[in-house]
């Protein structure tokens, strides 16, 4: 790495942290209203963000330091920035952002969107590009979540629309632009492989994500809603795990299990059940959603990703389209369906807590719950429409702002894109231990032969 | 793996997941009664099942994918199946199984029994054999737990009898049958070894099991009982850790620590204190139980396992007899002893909550607590007898049904047993990365020499 | 390891565990007063001690078993011993130590001090030296904490003075003595290096420490204090993570990130904010403390540690001076500053709960809170003085008792110091798997060359 380049990185990173501190000085104060009971689920989400996403991305043979390290760095910046961005939409009368434990888990959840996008471009960017991407993304994320939740009054308990779908398509759009520019063809890199050990490290991430996902989908809920979210997510994850194994054996060439599917598609149930996590989908509904999501996700890895790459040039390193993109869309559609059939007979008075935009009875006029609250007087069908609208708007905003962000990332002077020879390589940014052969480059030989180490000049 | 065989696997796994979904559709609904306060300990148990057991079994050099992967798959199937099986003994009036957060942790606890059995046969079965074993085992587990807890009214707070002892002896019986059949001598496999890295991965499992074990023993309790269970388990684990190190240095040939003991025997205190976890054994009682369990467990690894293997042919891959079997029996005996000396003077009125089958005073006739509840009018001595009965019945049922299950697993057509050459090998079921020499077989050379890689045809 | 030596180890370890059991028999009973609500944060701290510290120290290429194993053994002994030592200062009327969940997390926190000291001497001691060190250290720790908290009435919510500063300087003093004695120059060992895999294992420790640190700083608090401690710790850790990356890029030779800094300095914010974690430092105060701590810590690794080593001979294997020592002093000074400016206008009546030694109003005479409690009638300025006194006393006691302890550890007959050839080597105490070349010694070649394996006699 050139001396000049590293100087620029240092200046930019300093500016970012100092600006964040300045924003905190001006705007952020303690909130005296909080629910300490949220602490347990907050910590579970916290583990998902930094252990889960961090280790899940360590699957590459020589990008483990960057995966867990840049996830750590990016996550830390983004949680600070999210406290500010999310707070801007909910300021106190004296223009202060009040920080409580709720701010912390909301910041963690927001950072999930950025780390999903990071998965799409993993190994294809400099770390400064990741940070710039994340800062722009959270600004857009906050606005889109405000639009969807406060304006449209859409419902999305586990953030499948506003976090997973948004993060995936934003990242894919960025990857599209990065791969259009003259950064060299990614597919030829011979470092984009796993090792036996790196795949086991990645499983640490997978399992912790899988275990704590019920907290992710339930942390912002309470009462029966929260209880249902825990049960539904637990069951959807169990069935998406089983289905991922099944589909992996069906779809891989030699009918063996592929670690990529086990590391990722097993989690698709958590995404797909997210929007409806708190709804009366019944335990079997959760199981069926998990089955659909697991199957769709593995199918995506085997069949859809290669097609997307061929026709659009998008290189989706972690396959976020299969873990977060398509399952997120599935969640959004399922959420619209459930909204369309929501009724007082199913939810009793809690209907108007779950869907605050409904206020008059959905089917008959003379129900006892008629006077529950203000609401917007929507019917269930109209709510379903707004659910679809939120999903479509989210995807559109993600793609458009992702493309723009990709353009910014490739502006000359703002950041230096990687070249073909240093993608997926920790060596660019990290002092590596002596067991890594620094001056050699691993070249892939014909199938079933061992590696050949040839010294190259770098 | 043959094409025909993988087709059969795919069909069976599909049938399993579809059947489970059908059972959920027919029987399972949300329970509106639940204790969300159980969520923390439930999540701890959840981590134990999937991170703890999963990584503990990654100690083999080329069976790490299978260890953590099949633990993941098997656990997911079993938690679904356990919700149904355990629910059958506690249905609502309209024949529905009501799912609450309690169902989820009970399902996790039940799956521990199956994963313990998996440890006994690790690397010796196809994955489909594991699934069939698990499905049968949970059906038997549910019945045995009902018999012991509801009929005998035995007390076993941490499941040492019904989970650990049951799972261990069931698995050992299965291993007995598998090794009687013509599947080749297991001991000669040169893949049944650890590497420096695989042993460290296994320690992730060990430590998480050790840390969260107090939750395992206390999740189903409340009040003082729960508090004592936390303290007793914490202390028993601390002393069994210390004692395992001590005994490992005493009993190994060159008086060095053996990773097998550290990974497993350190946990024996959690098993041995389980039945009495909530009782007034005092902190020192917990310490002494932990010392006894750690010592017994290491002794088992060094002295007893080789004898069992020689005389019965049982190959106990993870040594579950030493971690779950003998410490479970110790727990059961200690539980009988504590039941025999239980009295009102020790427990006050909580005596009849802890031992619901006692209802008249145990020593004097004119106590103030005489009228506490219905009960079965047992004396403390009788309760001790029922504790022993539960232990003996559990072992007998485990062995008999384990033998039958082993027989089923080796039926031609139902499953294909592994041959001598593909035991302890991820290669059969997994697409492996290129850093694994797929065409070579590792042969062990005389002591202190490095490995020699010789190419073999497979 | 000689037969005679291992026999001595076995006898000593037996004596330790038997003595602890005897102390428990005589003194320890259940406490019927407890707060089960502390369980969540207790478990988080528990994970920090055994996963966090354990894996953080696995970064050495051939000391991973010892790192995670001896951390496990030492932690287990120390939590037993801490229950007794801490209990001696708080006995019941009948001279019993009452064990509750509070005892467990206090024991875990105390063991952190010992494990920090272990970090200073990692790889330089026999395991028995570690145990002797830990036993002495906890006795001193308990007395010093009593002096600081009960006598001086100093305030230190997150234990930055009494745990981190104490543990660091105690360990450095021990290391000073060990390196003065004829145990060979440590710096020449060619095993004191990491590998790519060992650094990733260490990151497991780092991330879990980072995640659960808010629980460490908040577990012993309640209400608004606890809420502030969570927010402040979370934010200080985020900014110290960002700053560590920044400073690592600035200060390393080739302007790349150094894993040592990422593994350790990212955590310095948690230490530096500890003393003030519950105070009204505002979110930006936490951010700024984190920035200062991260910068100071990396600067310490790059510039200060080599100077200390050159002039004093202290070899600080994990760099605890940079992670716990200097950030702990920073925390203590910041705590004194905050005490000096504490006033009723800032804290209202909670001022006298936070600082129990204040009882008269700090600024004006006729406040409504004048009669709040007994207190010692201190002014805020006086409290600041006592905070400084606690910090200075702690450092002095740590250094003096650490030097004495180092002297005891090097007494002939009590323990056998390692020689130059077996430092940082698992081989002395562990049965290693066959993938480790037991008869070879790794020699470092000139930069950028691969390792050369030469057989040496051992």
TrEMBL record, chains A, B, C:
Q: Which GO terms describe its cellular component?
A: plasma membrane
InterPro entries to which the protein is assigned, alphabetical: Ammonium/urea_transptr, NH4_transpt_AmtB-like_dom, RhesusRHD
Q: Where in the cell is it found?
A: Membrane
Q: Which GO terms describe its molecular function?
A: ammonium channel activity
Q: Which domain of life is it from?
A: Eukaryota
What residue ranges are annotated as transmembrane? 12-30, 42-60, 72-91, 103-121, 127-149, 161-180, 200-219, 231-251, 284-302, 323-342, 388-411
Name the family. Belongs to the ammonium transporter (TC 2.A.49) family. Rh subfamily.
| Keywords tagged on the record | Membrane, Transmembrane, Transmembrane helix
Name of the protein in its database record: Ammonium transporter AmtB-like domain-containing protein
Q: Which residues form the Ammonium transporter AmtB-like domain?
A: 39-411
Q: Name one GO biological process term.
A: ammonium homeostasis
Give the principal location in a single coarse category.
membrane
Q: Give the way it sits in the membrane.
A: Multi-pass membrane protein
């Amino acid at each position: 790495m050139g001396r000049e380049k590293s100087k620029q990185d240092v200046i930019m990173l300093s500016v970012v942290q100092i600006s964040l501190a300045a924003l905190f000085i001006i705007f952020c104060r303690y909130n005296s209203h909080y629910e300490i009971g949220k602490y347990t689920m907050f910590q579970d989400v916290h583990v998902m963000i930094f252990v889960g996403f961090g280790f899940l991305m360590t699957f590459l043979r020589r990008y483990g330091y960057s995966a867990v390290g840049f996830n750590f760095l990016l996550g830390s910046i983004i949680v600070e920035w999210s406290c500010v961005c999310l707070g801007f939409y909910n300021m106190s009368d004296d223009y202060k952002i009040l920080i409580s434990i709720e701010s912390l888990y909301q910041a963690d959840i927001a950072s999930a969107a950025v780390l999903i996008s990071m998965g799409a471009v993993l190994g294809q960017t400099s770390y400064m590009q990741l940070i710039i991407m994340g800062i722009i993304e959270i600004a857009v994320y906050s606005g889109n979540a405000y639009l969807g939740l406060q304006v449209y009054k859409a419902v999305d308990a586990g953030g499948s629309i506003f976090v997973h779908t948004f993060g995936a398509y934003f990242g894919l759009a960025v990857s599209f632009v990065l791969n259009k520019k003259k950064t060299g063809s990614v597919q030829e890199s011979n470092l984009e492989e796993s090792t036996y050990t790196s795949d086991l490290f990645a499983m640490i991430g997978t399992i912790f994500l899988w275990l704590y996902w019920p907290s992710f989908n339930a942390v912002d809920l309470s009462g029966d809603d929260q209880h249902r979210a825990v049960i539904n997510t637990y069951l959807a994850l169990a069935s998406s795990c089983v289905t991922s194994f099944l589909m992996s054996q069906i779809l891989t060439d030699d009918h063996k299990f592929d670690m990529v599917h086990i590391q990722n598609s097993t989690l698709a149930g958590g995404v797909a059940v997210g929007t409806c996590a708190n709804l009366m989908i019944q335990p079997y509904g959760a199981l069926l959603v998990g089955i659909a999501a697991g199957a769709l996700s593995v199918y995506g890895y085997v069949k859809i990703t290669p097609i997307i790459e061929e026709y659009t040039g998008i290189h989706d390193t972690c396959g976020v389209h299969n873990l977060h993109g398509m399952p997120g869309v599935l969640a959004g559609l399922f959420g619209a369906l459930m909204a369309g059939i929501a009724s007082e007979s199913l939810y009793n008075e809690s209907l108007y807590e779950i869907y605050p935009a409904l206020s008059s009875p959905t089917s008959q006029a003379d129900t006892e719950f008629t006077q529950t609250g203000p609401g917007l007087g929507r019917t269930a069908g109209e709510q379903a429409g707004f659910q679809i609208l939120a999903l479509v708007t989210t995807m559109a905003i993600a793609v458009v702002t992702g493309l723009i962000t990709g353009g910014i990332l490739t502006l000359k002077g703002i950041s230096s894109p990687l070249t073909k020879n240093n993608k997926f390589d920790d060596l660019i940014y990290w002092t590596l231990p002596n067991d890594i052969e620094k001056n050699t480059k691993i070249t892939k030989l014909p199938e079933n032969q061992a590696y050949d180490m040839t010294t190259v000049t770098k």
